[in-house]
Amino acid sequence: MKSMGKIPSAHYRAHGSGRKPLRTITELAQEFGVTVNQLAGCIGKDRNAPAYVFKNGQTVNGNKSTWYNPDELRAWWKGRNEKATA
């Protein structure tokens, strides 16, 4: 019997992993037309803001990334802006 081992990445490209792609806070800030600091500040101050899904704490290069579910963050951002204009 053959060992199952790791599934090659070609399998994921062909069949998908079943997960929706996450977005970094930088990508979402660009989409919303604000700076990263503004978006991070809004997320930090609002208790209703969605939590991050994954946080990369790598500090070798000083690179840190926070990944969010884009659908949740877009819905929160839309609701937050509707409250501000009402």
Features:
86 residues; 3-stranded antiparallel beta sheet; globular; 3 strands
What is the secondary structure topology, with strand pairs?
Elements (H helix, E strand, L loop, with lengths): L8 H7 L7 E2 H8 L3 H10 L8 E3 L8 E4 L1 H16 L1
Antiparallel strand pairs: 1-3, 2-3
Question: What would you say this structure looks like, in words?
Answer:
It is a single chain. The chain has 86 residues and is mainly alpha-helical. The chain has a three-stranded antiparallel sheet. A hairpin with an 8-residue loop joins strand 2 and strand 3. Helix 2 crosses helix 3. The mean pLDDT is 79.
Task: Give a brief rundown of this model.
This protein is mainly α. It is built from four helices and three strands, in the order αβααββα.
Q: How much helix is in the residues?
A: 40-55%
Q: What share of the residues does DSSP label as strand, in percent?
A: 5-15%
**Count of domains:** 1
As laid out across the biggest beta sheet, the strand order is 1-3-2
Stretches where pLDDT falls below 50 for ≥5 residues?
none
Shape: globular
As a whole number of angstroms, the C-alpha radius of gyration is 17 Å
> Number of helix segments?
4
Total E-strand runs: 3
Biggest sheet layout? 3 strands, antiparallel
- Report the order of strands and helices: HEHHEEH
Structural class: mainly alpha
